[in-house]
Amino acid sequence: MENNREKIETILKACDEKKAYSFSVIDISNISTIADYFIICSVNNERQGEAVADEIINKMSKIGVKLIHKEGYQTKRWILLDYGFAVVHIFHKDERYVYDLEKLWSEGTDIDVEDYGIENWN
């Protein structure tokens, strides 16, 4: 976890700076080969979703972490950023509960975002 701690913190702080909310970090390393973590947040509208995604890409690039793949920029209702070690899911508030990734990946381990200095509000 220590190896990825700075990366996760960078992602969460980028989300927080753009006023995303309702953060979840799920360690899926023991149940999937997709990634080690899912990082999930909500936004209020499409423009905010794009701003959050752009901020994450910018901040991660500054610490030398390259984006592998991105999806969802067309509709901006569910933007996915794949960094290999983690997949970031930026959901429009109305879409998040439709897909309910937290329930789908409930066998993973929830990580308290407050350990990263982020206050989690819903």
From TrEMBL:
Q: Does the keyword Repressor apply?
A: yes
Single GO BP term: negative regulation of translation
Per the record, the domain of life is Bacteria
InterPro entries hit by this protein: Iojap/RsfS/C7orf30, NT_sf
Naming one, the record's GO cellular component terms include:
cytoplasm
Specify where it is mainly localized.
cytoplasm
- Keyword line: Cytoplasm, Repressor, Translation regulation
As for subcellular location, the record says:
Cytoplasm
Q: Which residues cross the membrane?
A: none
Q: Which GO terms describe its molecular function?
A: ribosomal large subunit binding
Q: HAMAP family per the record?
A: Iojap_RsfS
How would you summarize the oligomeric state and partners of this protein?
Answer: Interacts with ribosomal protein uL14 (rplN).
Family to which the UniProt record says this protein belongs? Belongs to the Iojap/RsfS family.
**NCBIfam families found in the cross-reference section:** rsfS_iojap_ybeB
Q: What is this protein's function?
A: Functions as a ribosomal silencing factor. Interacts with ribosomal protein uL14 (rplN), blocking formation of intersubunit bridge B8. Prevents association of the 30S and 50S ribosomal subunits and the formation of functional ribosomes, thus repressing translation.
By what name is this protein known? Ribosomal silencing factor RsfS
Organism whose genome encodes this protein: Dethiosulfatibacter aminovorans DSM 17477
Higher taxonomy: Bacteria, Bacillati, Bacillota, Tissierellia, Dethiosulfatibacter
